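Hi, here's the filled form for the chain we discussed.

Project: internal
Contact: R.S.
Residues: 232
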Amino acid sequence: MRAHVNPALGTKQRLLDAAAKIFVEDGLRQAKIRDIVARAKTNLAAVNYHFGGKEALYTAVVRQHAERALAQHPTQLAPGFATLPPQRALRVFVRGMLARLLDDDPDTLFPRLLAREMLDPTPALAGLAESFARPQAVALTRLVATLLTERRPSRESELCAVSIVSQCMNLYFQRPVIGVLFPDLNIDKTAIDRLADHICEFSLGGIRARARTLQKTEGHTKQAATRKPNAR
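And the returned structure, exactly as it came back:
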């Protein structure tokens, strides 16, 4: 049975709360406006007045829950992040991402909204990626570039950043399978610190290895460029 939202809230917030639960259950395409307004105890005119339609309402819902999750579990927005040593900053970043994804509070809908968006992208994806994902991607890529001792982010630092994010995302999306194959791992919010430590140590090892490889490659390239051809 679907629970109703708090009638004491204003109409706009009631619509956001009702829509969030229905979008999580049914997705944007299958969600019915009539179900949303019934749960919010309002009418279709209110949706058009406050949001202009279902797609705009969906975008507002995802944006609101993304903002809440980022405020509760910040990454690059964490206090003092910019002044932290790179290794420490990486752990803050990874822990914040894991905390957002593995938050099992019933009222925390962001992970499930994100999962639906990843599996069945909507027109809202591009705007949401620019608003929320890009600032984090930029911060992480710059951080990785520092660890790689690069002057500026490169394709290599981008690949390393994608690898780090993928480890975090995989723990969320693969959690049901991991629970069957490795039940003692406990992939939930009680294990966030342990998981963050593992991902950071694993990633730092890979980044250091890539840095050594890049330095060797650069050294060989310089030697080849300065080597003079044998005189005939």
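Let me know if anything looks off before we file it.
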